[in-house]
């Protein structure tokens, strides 16, 4: 059996052979522990009947394990310096396609067509570049791509916020945005020592299972997400306070109070205590008043 890419020795060898230097600005922290990668793939429930999309293959550490576990792998890599390296390191595998594009600018429809995605369930698996974790995830979710799940290594604090339940200090508009589209869970905490170079922050593996439909009925999504964001604007302040600021130009204080009464939510509560269902009822009510 060929030695895995994800070891300190092979990573160093590959870097030396190509004179490759890490670009901090691209979030390049490569994984050097194959057990972590196999755990990630287990958490993602990858099988040979599925295709995988990877974001940021680096020198191919995770890509290789995905190629072993999945039917085929499509990997987006922004850094052109890595293309010849990937060609070399992933040479033993014939089920990998590297797309040299910025994931935030990629034309997903074109990629779907070109690699005949959609014939099998698709899972996204990645050790994400931490500087753009939230934009990448929100873009994948909002595009409503036909994918089954997303399993990603990200900064621990961000993973905890994304999976947080109401009435915890991690809960906020990000929790609601993510959980509107998915069932979110933090699967494991990962020490810095499995990366080269080591990042400054701790990491975690976040699993997002796509929902078939949102858990609540929302009449207008942009209005809802704005409303939720404003409810957390000043975390220490009451809902009444944050919302009177949000609706300054559109609703009077007594109209806002009427909303609280009609929906049965106490205006002295804080945003962090509201469930997604409560946010949806309140936001739908105010949307009707304003539209
Ligand atoms: N998958 C490899 C591993 O686990 O060892 C590398 C992970 S490293 C944390 C993040 C990777 O994402 C880097 O290879 C980086 O060049 C790439 N990357 C950064 N920004 C990107 C973008 N906008 N689109 C695609 N890839 C990007």
TrEMBL record:
GO terms for molecular function: 16S rRNA (adenine(1518)-N(6)/adenine(1519)-N(6))-dimethyltransferase activity; RNA binding. It catalyses: adenosine(1518)/adenosine(1519) in 16S rRNA + 4 S-adenosyl-L-methionine = N(6)-dimethyladenosine(1518)/N(6)-dimethyladenosine(1519) in 16S rRNA + 4 S-adenosyl-L-homocysteine + 4 H(+). InterPro entries: KsgA/Erm, rRNA_Ade_diMease-like_C, rRNA_Ade_Mease_Trfase_CS, rRNA_Ade_methylase_Trfase_N, rRNA_adenine_dimethylase, SAM-dependent_MTases_sf. Its EC number is 2.1.1.182. Its main location: cytoplasm. Gene3D superfamilies: Ribosomal RNA adenine dimethylase-like, domain 2, Vaccinia Virus protein VP39. It is an enzyme of class 2 (transferase). S-adenosyl-L-methionine binds at residues 29, 31, 56, 77, 102, 127. It is found in: Cytoplasm. PROSITE patterns: RRNA_A_DIMETH, SAM_RNA_A_N6_MT. One of its GO terms (cellular component) is cytosol. Residues 36-212 form the Ribosomal RNA adenine methylase transferase N-terminal domain. Signal peptide: none annotated. Keywords: Cytoplasm, Methyltransferase, RNA-binding, rRNA processing, S-adenosyl-L-methionine, Transferase. PANTHER family: DIMETHYLADENOSINE TRANSFERASE, DIMETHYLADENOSINE TRANSFERASE-RELATED. Specifically dimethylates two adjacent adenosines (A1518 and A1519) in the loop of a conserved hairpin near the 3'-end of 16S rRNA in the 30S particle. May play a critical role in biogenesis of 30S subunits. NCBIfam families: ksgA (TIGR00755). Belongs to the class I-like SAM-binding methyltransferase superfamily. rRNA adenine N(6)-methyltransferase family. RsmA subfamily. This is Ribosomal RNA small subunit methyltransferase A.
